[in-house]
Automatic annotation (TrEMBL):
NADP(+) binds at residues 11-16, 34-36, 76-78, 104. Homodimer. It comes from Paraglaciecola polaris LMG 21857. Residues 186-476 form the 6-phosphogluconate dehydrogenase C-terminal domain. This is 6-phosphogluconate dehydrogenase, decarboxylating. Gene3D superfamilies: 6-Phosphogluconate Dehydrogenase, domain 3 (1.20.5.320), N-(1-d-carboxylethyl)-l-norvaline Dehydrogenase, domain 2 (1.10.1040.10), NAD(P)-binding Rossmann-like Domain (3.40.50.720). Keywords: Gluconate utilization, NADP, Oxidoreductase, Pentose shunt. The keyword NADP applies. Pathway: Carbohydrate degradation; pentose phosphate pathway; D-ribulose 5-phosphate from D-glucose 6-phosphate (oxidative stage): step 3/3. It holds the Pfam family 6PGD. GO terms for molecular function: NADP binding; phosphogluconate dehydrogenase (decarboxylating) activity. The gene is gnd. Catalyzes the oxidative decarboxylation of 6-phosphogluconate to ribulose 5-phosphate and CO(2), with concomitant reduction of NADP to NADPH.
Length: 489
């Protein structure tokens, strides 16, 4: 073992342990530390035995074991625990040492911590790490942001342990790990990744509900549909695991999935994505609806009670099942394109707001392998941003425009069938509504502006006058000529 470790890692939960083992397998020596030392002992005697991994029994010994500039990665619960460890580390660190937070941290915290640690002469990295337990061990997707000076000092470690994908020619192996931008940019991109993850998962769930309730398919039949979808443009990790979930039987031979209570949990990253979109004025409808879908699922008792007193339509389907399933596949694909277009719009707006230079093609590449939303589809997004790095909306690029246009007939039939049968499909339908709004030159917001001006003198612009000139009308003859100030949040 080297006399000094290349990196220290704090937090021996599942992600932390696996990241350490991954780093060690790539030739790095790692010091492991955990608040309760018994976990360190257990790890050193267990999974880390015989490997280039040393345990530390205090923050001081952890820091003393590291080569300079020291690199300490925190894999602890996002929030106060990160601040607490930072405060414990600071007294032992020297100028230029690096603290790396690899948890699912809310990006404003990483903005704040970067500034704070840089003010103390230290460097800070806030990084998204995606891929769950297996990804952490075998190659996660890693999205780093923070103090740019730290990047060359950690690049080798993180690019070595990350997932790899082939380049566009199918040859060279490219790491799914890159520098995203200053301050909280890495955690911001991870947050959007998670929001997209929520949307993709909800779309799959809506497809399942339609297959089960409207078509009456059983778990084995649904398994086959997902297995087929995974050979099409929908080829992705989430469809792949869904196919496996439908094949999984409980001890009695029945599909386990049908025995799981229908109340979704959430740890907050999807909600942050939605709240940020509202803050930045980005119509991120699909992800927001996927968060609300989890919220309504969690109100199980209320739903059960309501189901007993409020009736809906009888389920009725006399169409061609195979044709409906193909329409459904196209609906999921089209809605997924809308979701990614919305997620990318959010990143573009945030880049303006926070002065980040985000590399959108590079982000698609980082998500191409290792992470939960990994899919073949992301290769197309990378191509779109490589062709036009300033692209405003993915829906305007030839591949995505053509795909959505050719899918929309099937998509509309699916939404229509769901609505007629009273099946809730918040994401499939809100994505279609967004799509129709986006491609409509004149929306009814003229009336909305008239209403605002009528009751509150909020003013409006006119189609027959230049943009930026505001008018107020005394609609009733009773109001005065004074208009309220014109501003938008
Ligand atoms: C990942 C996942 C990971 C985690 C989510 C789950 O990229 O590896 O996104 O971060 O699975 O935090 O989030 P919810 O508990 O909110 O579904």
């Amino acid at each position: 073992m080297k006399s000094k470790s290349d990196i220290g890692l704090v937090g021996l939960a599942v992600m932390g342990e696996n990241l350490i083992l991954n780093m060690e397998s790539k030739g790095f020596t790692v010091t492991a530390y955990n608040r309760s030392y018994s976990k360190v002992e257990k790890f050193i005697e267990g999974r880390a035995k015989g490997k280039n991994i040393r345990g530390a029994d205090s923050v001081k010994t952890l820091v003393e074991s590291l080569a300079t500039p020291r690199k300490v990665m925190l894999m602890v619960k996002a929030g106060q625990a990160v601040d607490d460890f930072i405060e414990q580390l600071i007294p032992f660190l020297d100028q230029g040492d690096i603290i790396i937070d690899g948890g699912n941290t809310h990006f404003p915290d990483s903005n704040r911590r970067t500034e704070y640690l840089e003010s103390k002469g230290l460097l800070y990295i806030g990084t998204g790490v995606s891929g769950g337990e297996e990804g952490a061990l075998k190659g996660p997707s890693i999205m780093l942001g923070g103090s740019k000076k730290a990047w060359p000092l950690v690049k080798d470690i993180f690019q070595s342990i990350s997932a790899k994908v082939a380049d566009e020619n199918g040859n060279e192996v490219v790491p799914c790990c890159d520098w995203v931008g200053d301050a909280g940019a890495g955690h911001f991109v991870k947050m959007v990744h998670n929001g997209i993850e929520y949307g993709d998962m909800q779309l799959i769930c809506e497809a399942y509900q339609l297959m089960k309730v409207v078509l009456g398919l059983n778990a084995d039949e649904i398994q086959k549909v997902f297995a087929h979808w995974n050979t099409t443009e929908l080829d992705s990790y989430l469809i792949d695991i869904t196919k496996d979930i439908f094949a999984f039987k409980d001890e009695d031979g029945e599909p386990l999935v049908e025995k799981i209570l229908d109340t979704a949990g959430q740890k907050g990253t999807g909600k942050w994505t939605g709240v940020t979109a509202l803050d930045l004025g980005v119509p991120l409808t699909l992800i927001a609806d996927s968060v609300f879908a989890r919220c309504i699922s969690a109100k199980k008792e209320q739903r059960v009670a309501a189901s007993k007193v409020i009736s809906g339509p009888e389920i009725h389907f006399d169409g061609d099942k195979a044709e409906f399933i193909e329409n459904l596949r196209q609906a999921v694909l089209a809605a997924k394109i809308v979701s990614y277009a919305q997620g990318y719009m959010l990143m573009q707006e945030a880049a303006k707001e926070f002065n980040w230079e985000l590399n959108y093609g590079g982000i698609a590449l980082m998500w191409r392998g290792g992470c939960i939303i990994r899919s073949a589809f992301l290769g197309k997004i990378k191509e779109a941003y490589d062709a036009d790095p300033k692209l405003e909306n993915l829906l305007l690029t030839p591949y995505f425009k053509d795909t959505v246009e050719s899918s929309q007939a099937g998509w509309r039939k699916v939404v229509g069938t769901a609505v007629t049968n009273g099946i809730a499909i918040p994401c499939l339908s809100s994505a279609l509504t967004y799509f129709d709004g986006f491609r409509t030159a004149r929306l009814p917001a003229n009336l909305l502006q008239a209403q605002r001006d009528y009751f509150g003198a909020h003013t409006y612009e006119r189609t027959d006058k230049p943009r930026g000139e505001f008018f107020h009308t005394n609609w009733t003859g009773r109001g005065g000529d004074t208009s309220s100030t014109t501003y938008d949040v």
